[in-house]
Amino acid sequence: MAFSHPALLVLVRHAESARNIAKKGSVYFADDAARQVVRGVPDHLIELTPDGRKQALQTGNGIRERFGTFDYVYTSGYARTEQTAEGILEAYPAAERSAMRVKPELFIRERDSGFAYDMTTAEAEAAFPWLNEYWQTFGGFMARPPGGESLADVAGRVHMFLVKLAARHAGQKILVVTHGGTLRCFRFLLEGWSYSQAQQWPEGGAPANCGVTTYRGTGSGLELEDYNRVYWTVGSSTDGI
């Protein structure tokens, strides 16, 4: 069967990061003490925790056993996705690793969180007293954090990445290591969600760190096989970006 899209698309959220631990699932930092470990570190340089590195290694074993090798491995180019991909690929013998091309891709980077990136809850509420009402009005898919991107904005660039996959990687096996919010945009596009559906995660919630989501190519497109399969047993974070 000839494909106009990849034969296999596997999406993996990055493993546990230092910022996941510091924010503990909150939109902002709880207080100044909570943010000290990562304060001033730009999002693209946030690294994995030791548990995160173990998660990536264990996930690699599960992915290799289930899917074998891939033609291409894409990361967002952020440190935590590159380190996650490196951990996954350690499960493969050197000859298999060398056959897979690993490339960073700007279109699948994390959502830009804007000016409140390093703020505590109290600081954000003082700086943007109107933000909660705005967010309630427009919802979690359309609303933009001050100076940042909405998920709808992110979906626009994810769409461009999917067009690229269709044009360059038809019939191939593709592994993508990306971020939680970006993965939600993949689902919005690939599964034809409405705006209302995209306002929040459906049943099953947000993906775990190193959660694996699989789409198989069919004659009509890419169809969801399973969502958020977890192969690791160490660590427990599902929070943050």
Strand content: 5-15%
Q: How many strands?
A: 6
Structural class: alpha/beta
Mean pLDDT: 94
Give the strand order, joined by hyphens, for the main sheet. 3-2-4-1-5-6
Global morphology:
globular
Low-confidence stretches: 236-240
Instruction: Output the helix-strand order.
Output: EHHHEHHEHHHEHHEE
Q: Helical residue percent?
A: 25-40%
**Major sheet characteristics:** 6 strands, mixed
Specify Rg, calculated over alpha carbons: 18 Å
DSSP helical segment count: 10
Distance between the termini: 38 Å
Give me the secondary-structure topology.
Elements: E1 8-13, H1 18-23, H2 32-35, H3 50-67, E2 72-75, H4 79-89, H5 94-98, E3 101-104, H6 121-127, H7 131-142, H8 151-168, E4 173-178, H9 180-190, H10 195-198, E5 212-218, E6 221-229
Parallel strand pairs: 1-4, 2-3, 2-4
Antiparallel strand pairs: 1-5, 5-6
